[in-house]
Amino acid sequence: MNKNLAFRRFFPLFFCLFFVTAYAEDGSRLWLRYESDGQANISGTFGVARDELQTNWNGGPVVLKRQKGMPKDGYKIVSDGEQIRISASTDAGLLYGAYHLLRLQGMGNVGKSLNIEESPMYEWRILDHWDNPDGTIERGFAGHSIFWENPCEFVIRQYARANASVGINGAVLNNVNAKPQTLDSDNLKQVQWIADILRPYGIRVYLSVNFASPIRLGGLTTADPLDKDVAGWWKQKVDEIYRLIPDFGGFLVKANSEGEPGPCDYGRTHAEGANMLARALKPHKGIVMWRTFVYAPNDPDRAKQAYKEFQPLDGQFLDNVILQVKNGPIDFQPREPYSPLFTSLKSTLVMAELQVTQEYLGAANHLTFLAPMWQEFFSLVKPASLKAIAGVANVGDNINWCGHHFAQANWYTFGRLAWNPNLTAETIAREWLAQTFTTDKRFVNPMTDMMVSSYETVVSYMMPLGLHHQFAGGHHYGPEPWYTAPGIRSDWTPAYYHRADSLGLGFDRSSRGTDAVSQYPDELRDQYDDIRTCPEKYLTWFHHVPWDYRMHNGRTFWDELCHKYDEGVHGARRMLAIWDSMMPYVDKERFAEVQRKLRIQARDSEWWRDACLLYFQTFSKRPIPQDVEHPVHNLDEMMKFRIHITNYENPECGYSK
Ligand code: GCU
Asked: Is the beta carbon of 302 within 6 A of some atom in ligand 1?
């Protein structure tokens, strides 16, 4: 067995043993760092809520009580100074109430009298795992899958606790690029085993399915959704699943996207495909989450394609189908305007798909707190217009779960916002910091500011002012605005998106260009269409901006672009400096690990600035302003090399041949 394989094979075992033998400051405890003597006085309903409080609560007596008539998953916490009473109509509600109490304890903030009433905004609060059967994770930067290949029951239970503590109640266990073997009877037994571990924590399991499964697994000659045998095959498969897992949640489907099979292969619509699956699931109360991440060449502008395919189908989906729409029209870019599908599907259930894993935001190396990004989304897409919410998970078998201690905050945030999308980034950052590190204000205050501003910093050094998809070929980590390859489709190259030329920079999606603006409601369309009223953060998304265009602050566009990159680089260095000053408040291990990552981030921010500015300068032919720091790299040298990423956890290799 080679060394890597041996490591892979036995690592989960070490991971498990580690958990049970010691609590080093390695991040494995996440935000669940309760300290208690286990002597709490808890009475009432049994179940996980009681266990959690019994083991972790260090305050006065708590009574858990079932109470009819409360909203699903909701709870009340009332205290009269002597006794705390948590009531809910379900076990899950009681559990959420128990974790709320423990959260207050972790924040050092229980208070004498409590009168809390909570219920979630969404019924479905789901993490999508892009985990493959061989244990690898697509766009995962924290090791291997905790579900497939050597799973460890203890680890899955800790995962369940973490999810339940923030209200997440569903997990899609496998990659949207799903293998037909997902539905193989042997595999379903493993799904059953996982479902049994997650169930006490109120978490249902879901599976991504391959639309061609009836052919590839069932031996049929077609997967046409209107074919009787195909529908019959799915019905039987679904019935088999429910015999094993009576509370199975349903299917997630990526169809006719990036080479995956789908109903369009048979001349059928997405609605016909989704409804066929929905009919099989309906008797069991299962749902179909059908993704709208498609980009068939029905329009030269990729940003318009999903809308053109799905908007005409509005109203044709059954009531247990929810369309799962990525937050932006392209693909989880550092910053995108919202996908116009959200405001144009009027008679169809819609859910948002956010990406917790930082595919395009520095992987597990950059500290990028995503709450401000998701708040920006919720400021335009009214939370109440959505039926559910999903997040692409950043969890792996890394000892700290997410690869970066601060990436845990994004998992935490996803759950908190799925429960209550109106929470502010600051509130969430404070909660997480206090529970995960210390309640000391000398730490929490500056670190909250640092976290909340990190998103803008990262966007500034990667792709400010509406730029998007300037990533290197083959991975989405570093910059390569010049990247192209023989025969590659143009919308997989940065030039398709930046459109740099001697006149300016940006993709003209105004009414004079591709008219993507017309997919937005009138008021926004007019705002985005006019370069003077278009928010500057989306400027090159919607406009081809002349190099000398005057920005609101009086600078030319070129100068502003240089300033933005400069702000990003300085912001990244400031993050490192703030962290360095936090040394007195943080344990040695986590301090050193975060410091190492922040150094990588500061270095990477310079790559980004230099690659983008020097390359765009070959078009703008304008000098970099005196008052910004000048690039340290040389463009010709950078273009000779590729950013070489073989191991995301150690990308120090940087540029190489
Ligand atoms: C992105 C990502 C893929 C993923 C796809 C999807 O393109 O890079 O890895 O499969 O999104 O969301 O389906």
From this structure: no
